[in-house]
Write a structure and sequence with these properties.
InterPro entries: C56_PfpI-like (IPR006286), Class_I_gatase-like (IPR029062), DJ-1/PfpI (IPR002818). The chain is an alpha/beta fold. It has one domain (4-184): Rossmann fold. Helices cover 31% and strands 27% of the residues. It has helices at 15-27, 88-92, 96-107, 119-124, 140-145, 170-184, and strands at residues 4-8, 31-36, 41-48, 57-65, 68-69, 80-83, 112-115, 132-133, 149-150, 155-158, 161-164. Strand 3 (41-48) and strand 4 form a beta hairpin. Helix 1 crosses helix 6 (170-184). The radius of gyration is 15 Å and the shape is globular. The two termini are 13 Å apart.
Length: 185
């Protein structure tokens, strides 16, 4: 039976931050579930940098069904966790059930891949202290406040935690994460 991997997300997550790892991990033979605050059709977004803007822009992205609600997740049933970015982490970090899930993965030292604003979730459970991470460059101060050593580079691996800045880095992020998964197998 293939190992199971959990993706945790919500509305306004970055489309490529969710669907690239979902498809890439399935291609490698993993069984992948997507969990959200409730079982529903999620609405993702597309972020891009456009000339004349000081920050990224947001447009509607794909929709995708959540397989599970956070309250239905058994972290022990999963070998690894993926945390996409986008705006979803801003409100998801306040979800008590999700924080329990995150803590279970870090307490068990299971592989975790986070991208972009997904780092806000791991910061919310104080799991970045002393670790090397990258995230969206706008989060550098947040990462420092969380006790992390921020690196403004595409992908950073620190033990079982693999982080990436944003959607342009998804290929290197998943390549590094798959390497960690293979080591742990």
């Amino acid at each position: 039976m293939p190992a199971k991997i959990l993706i945790i997300t919500g509305d306004a997550a970055e489309s490529l931050g969710v669907l690239y790892p979902y498809q890439r991990l399935r291609e490698e033979g993993y069984d992948v579930d997507i969990a959200a605050p409730a079982r529903k059709t999620l609405r993702f977004v597309v972020h891009d940098v456009e000339p004349g803007y000081d920050t990224y822009t947001e447009k509607p992205g794909y929709t995708w069904p959540a397989d599970l609600a956070f309250c239905e997740v058994d972290p022990g049933a999963y070998a690894a966790l993926v945390i996409p970015g986008g705006r979803a982490p801003e409100y998801l970090r306040n979800d008590l059930e999700l924080r329990k899930i995150l803590k279970a993965f870090f307490d068990a030292d299971k592989p975790v891949a986070q991208i972009c604003h997904g780092a806000l979730l791991t910061a919310a459970i104080d799991s970045l202290r002393g670790r090397r991470v990258t995230a969206h460059p706008a989060l550098e101060l947040d990462m420092q406040v969380a006790g992390a050593h921020f690196e403004d580079t595409g992908t950073v691996a620190d033990g079982t935690l693999v982080s990436a800045r944003a959607w342009p880095d998804v290929a290197s992020w998943m390549r590094e994460f798959l390497g960690v998964l293979r080591e742990r197998a």
